[in-house]
Write a structure and sequence with these properties.
- It is built from two helices and eleven strands.
- By secondary structure, the chain is of the alpha+beta class.
- It has a nine-stranded antiparallel β-sheet, with no helix packed on it.
């Protein structure tokens, strides 16, 4: 009886440790209130509901590994459609892989309930929504994916089907701040120098006038 109790206790500890490791690996990089907007282009004749030209995804709630999102899509005729759904990073319910676990590295995998285990092919820096980001790449027979590493959010994707193709790319987000361009920094520096020279000239002129005054 004692041996059985010890064995059951050890088994329970192992299960709890394994569960902890699995959950720890599912890092969530988004928070409630985060949003991201996309420009969507397509060729051919995509099915109804896929013929959109703009989309916005907002994180409305997070509970454990569940991420609730609200997705607004705009169509070429000006109409809009709002779709609410809950993603689950643990079970792999990711819809079109909108969000994956954060901070994955090349060679690591995540679960997609439709595709199975998806492997990150490689990672590299690239500019998205005005900022240099480390992004992750993966592909299947028909789709290519790019995610922001720190947040796990999709920043670009292409779906190549027999009758059509769709390309989606981020245009704006509140999850990171656009990097100030070199031209803007140079312009700001020049303006500071000009202002400093102007102020110095005015001060020098005032001092010179005071000296000449009897």
């Amino acid at each position: 009886m004692f041996k059985r109790l010890v064995s059951a206790t050890i088994m329970l500890i192992l299960v709890l440790c394994l569960t902890t490791v699995v959950l720890a690996s599912l890092s969530i990089g988004v928070k409630k209130g985060d949003w991201i907007e996309y420009t969507v282009t397509y060729t051919g004749s995509p099915p109804k509901g896929h013929d959109i030209n703009w989309a916005r995804m907002e994180i409305t709630n997070i509970h454990g590994t569940n991420i609730t999102v609200s997705i607004t899509s705009k169509f070429p005729n000006g109409s809009t459609e709002i779709f609410n759904s809950t993603l689950n990073l643990k079970t792999g319910q990711l819809i079109d892989d909108f969000i994956i676990p954060a901070n994955l590295k090349a060679g690591e995998t995540f679960l997609d309930q439709n595709l199975g285990n998806v492997t990150i092919n490689h990672a590299e820096e690239h500019t998205y929504a005005g900022a240099l980001r480390m992004v992750l790449y993966a592909s299947t027979n028909q789709n290519t994916y790019v995610w922001d590493q720190a947040t796990g959010v999709s920043v670009e994707g292409t779906s190549q089907q027999p009758d059509y193709s769709i390309h989606t790319i981020v245009e704006n987000t509140n999850m990171w701040v656009p990097s100030q361009s070199l031209d803007a920094r140079v312009f700001l520096l020049v303006m500071i120098v000009v202002l400093a020279v102007t102020v110095a000239s005015v001060i020098a002129a005032i001092r010179c006038r005071k000296r000449k005054t009897p």
